[in-house]
């Protein structure tokens, strides 16, 4: 799966790929307005990632949320 903050490109790429009959393992979006890229912000991002572990992510675009998963 892919983790990015680039919604504009990767949400479109994923949708186009699915429209053409392709599949992908999932795209996780971590908006910079929600997650700091500074070292002190890493635990929050890791917690959001751990919150989606075990969810079916194939062919999905998931927007990570602080403190509650996706």
Subunit organisation of the chains: single chain
The helix/strand series, from N terminus to C terminus, equals EHEHE
The proportion of strand residues reads: 5-15%
The average pLDDT value, as a whole number, equals 93
From the helix content, strand content and strand pairing, which structural class follows? Answer: alpha/beta
Give a summary of the structure in a few sentences.
The chain has 70 residues and is an alpha/beta fold.
Question: How would you explain this protein's 3D organization?
Answer:
- The chain has 70 residues and is α/β, with parallel strands linked by helices.
- The protein has one domain (2-63).
- The chain has helices at residues 7-19, 42-52; strands at residues 2-4, 27-29, 61-63.
- Strands 1-2-3 form a 3-stranded parallel β-sheet, with helices on one face.
- Strand 1 (2-4), helix 1 and strand 2 (27-29) form a beta-alpha-beta unit.
- It starts with a strand and ends in a 7-residue tail after the last strand.
- The model has no long low-confidence stretch (mean pLDDT 93).
Q: What keyword list fits this structure?
A:
3 strands, 70 residues, single chain, 2 helices, 3-stranded parallel sheet, alpha/beta, 34% helix
Q: How do the strands and helices of this protein lay out in sequence?
A:
Blueprint: E1 2-4, H1 7-19, E2 27-29, H2 42-52, E3 61-63
Parallel strand pairs: 1-2, 2-3
């Amino acid at each position: 799966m892919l983790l990015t903050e680039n919604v504009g490109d990767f949400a479109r790429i994923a949708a186009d790929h699915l429209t053409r009959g392709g599949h992908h393992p999932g795209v996780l979006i971590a908006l910079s307005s929600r997650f700091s890229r500074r070292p002190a912000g890493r635990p929050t991002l890791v917690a959001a990632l751990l919150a989606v572990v075990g969810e079916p992510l194939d062919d999905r675009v998931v927007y990570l949320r602080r403190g509650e998963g996706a």
